[in-house]
Amino acid sequence: MATRVRIHYHRPDRGTTVFEEHLVLDRPDVKVTLLDTYEGKDAFAGDRLILSAGAPVVWFVYPDLCRDVGRFHLADGTFTGWYTNLRAPIRMDGNDWYCTDLFLDHWLPADGSPGRWLDEDELHAARDAGLVSAADLEVVWRERAAVEAQLLTTWPPGIAREVGLRQALELAAG
Fold first, then answer.
1. Domain boundaries along the sequence of the chain
2. How far apart are CA 57 and CA 110, in angstroms?
């Protein structure tokens, strides 16, 4: 049976939400977690449903980077694509992990259609409201440039293409 971790996910304009997830793969360069059931409201990229309430999510957490990649699904398990979340450096304290969202995200649909950056307006509003620091903005621009450099060749990272929902469920079951 996989270890359970608690991810304390802070969004400066919305507070902190704690997600209990299965740690299904634990490597120095990447931690793979499984969120059994997404309990939020449906998420969209434009008019496309990318994550539905009740859906599982496989997350790829990179401890040395300021980004995570999620394999998003619908409630029936249909894979929709990869969601890259830019964040401040993560702090891992045993089974409790702490991270702060930096607003900007990237969506890459599973159907091969072009990806797109999301929530740039939220990032600018957060900057204007003083919710992100100059150092946070440097992280955002650095991470965005790194993702953009890889979009044409190696994005998402190999492990995010290799470990799908079925494998994550098997690993979680032990």
1. 3-169
2. 14
Band of residue 1 on the pLDDT scale cut at 50, 70, 90: low
Class of the CATH-defined domain 3-169: mainly beta
Task: Report the C-alpha gap between 119 and 141 in whole angstroms.
Answer: 14
CA–CA separation, 25 and 7 (whole Å):
15
Cα distance between residue 5 and residue 11, in whole Å: 19
Return phi, psi of residue 62, to 5°. -105, 105
Ranges assigned E (strand) in 12-115: 15-26, 31-35, 43-45, 48-51, 57-61, 67-73, 79-87, 91-93, 96-109
CA 105 – CA 84 distance, rounded (Å): 5
pLDDT of residue 10 exceeding 80: yes
Distance CA 31, CA 7 (A): 12
Q: How far apart are CA 163 and CA 28, in angstroms?
A: 16
Taking only the tens place, the pLDDT of each residue in 66-112 is 999 999 999 999 999 999 999 999 999 999 999 999 999 999 999 99
Angle at 94 between CA 92 and CA 97, to 5 degrees: 35
pTM given for the model: 0.96
